[in-house]
Every structure is written in C-alpha cells, then in structure tokens.
Amino acid sequence: MTTTRRYPGDPEDPGLPYNAFAKECPSRGTLEHVTGRWGALTLGALSGGSLRFNELRRRVGGVSEKMLSQTLHALERDGLVHREAQPTNPPRVDYELTPLGHEAARRVLSLIHFLEDSMDDVLLARESYDARGAR
Amino acid sequence: MTTTRRYPGDPEDPGLPYNAFAKECPSRGTLEHVTGRWGALTLGALSGGSLRFNELRRRVGGVSEKMLSQTLHALERDGLVHREAQPTNPPRVDYELTPLGHEAARRVLSLIHFLEDSMDDVLLARESYDARGAR
C-alpha cells in the first residue's frame, strides 16, 4: 500500500486521505503522540503486556508522573491504549495496548531496536562531526 | 535479534548494550532526534532523495527555518543525514540520507503510513473518548 506513493507529502499525489507532512492534517497530532518525547517509550514498554501506572513509570526511565499521565491520556484518546480501572480497594488501574496500539508499538519498537543496534555507528559519527567542528 | 528480548527495558535482560528505556543511555538522545517533533517528518521527506534546505522546508509543513536547521544538525551529527555543500555561487547545499539514515527512515515511514491509514479509527476513538468525558 505504501509502495504506490511516489514520496510522502507529495502535493501531486492525490491518493492520500491523511498526510502527516501537511501541517493541518489530524494525523500529525497522532504522530506526535506516538513519537513525542515519551510516547514511543510508553508504547514500547506496554508491548510486553498490561502494566500499572507505577510499573510503567519504572519501565520508562526518567519520565515524571505528570508527563506519563499526559502521555497515557493522549494515547488513550487516540485509541492506542486502554485504561482499565479495577473496582478494588485501593482502586487498581491497568494500562494495555489496544489492537491498534499493538500495531503502532510493533513499528515503534522496530525503530527503537534499530537505533539501539546502530549506536556504535552513531557515536562514531558524533565523534567525527565534533572533530570537524573543532578544526 | 529483537525476538530474543523478553521485553524492552527489562532490567533482567543482560543482552542489551544500549537501551533507550534507560534514562542515561545515549540511544535515548538519538531516538529523540529521530522521532522528536520534526525529526520523523524530516527523515521521511528525505527518503525520496536529496533536497535543498528550502525544498525540504516546503515538504515538512509548518516547520520553521530555525527548527529545521536544528533538526538537520542533530541528524547530521548522529550520522543519519549527509550535508553536501556545492562550490557554486551562490552556494548550494543539499541534504540526503546516509545508508544508516535510510534504514531509520524506512522504519519511520512505516509508522507514519500506518498512522495515516489508521486515522479513521483514531478519530472515532477520540469522539468516543470525548463523549465519555462529557457524560
């Protein structure tokens, strides 16, 4: 399906109902929720199964309570994360990926793992870049 | 290679030299360059071939000159984008993906296209979420 697109954002491609390259397209917002500072890691962390808020927070190193809460709300509103409140005392809330969220998370994790596996090359490129700048 | 990981960020998984879920890992920074507000769209736009700065800026709707410049510098430093200055008058600067950048862009585009294709479901989920909130 993506192979018929000449290139993303091509203004002459009439076949794109949604186009994240266009400023006004609603898919832009969802892309930002999924990839934004914490969205990608939150989706990735949930791909192993449902987690409670504090478990998730430990999994996503460095995220604040406020930022994780905002991230989860945006992902829930977009239909990527399901929030399940158990009628227990104290109340217990679990977060899990929806089927759509699993599909998104699979692609996000493919990118995360690729970058993790490429870090030796990335760090060499940074050294080389910084050395050129210092000349 | 990714199939042997029990889940991303698992503290008991000893096989991960880089782990974007860990706050201090340098792969976290690269993930943010690639997925951050403009990184994903910049990589995606360059996947069709090299572009000049202003061509790229038109392709990535809504990006400011300053933000595109910062995004390109970060991607260049990470070895994902190559900047080629032609010795012409006026000087002409082309940006293109490196082989590593192409690999990253392929994964980013897979995510972008998936989200674009899922927007009908996302917008329905938002309506339903907002209706629940209004009850």
Automatic annotation (TrEMBL), chains A, B:
Residues 25-123 form the HTH hxlR-type domain. Transmembrane segments: none annotated. The keyword Ligase does not apply. Pfam families: HxlR. Keywords: DNA-binding, Transcription, Transcription regulation. SUPFAM superfamilies: Winged helix' DNA-binding domain (SSF46785). InterPro entries: HTH_HxlR (IPR002577), WH-like_DNA-bd_sf (IPR036388), WH_DNA-bd_sf (IPR036390). PANTHER family: HTH-TYPE TRANSCRIPTIONAL REGULATOR YODB, TRANSCRIPTIONAL REGULATOR, MARR FAMILY. This is Helix-turn-helix domain-containing protein. It comes from Streptomyces cathayae.
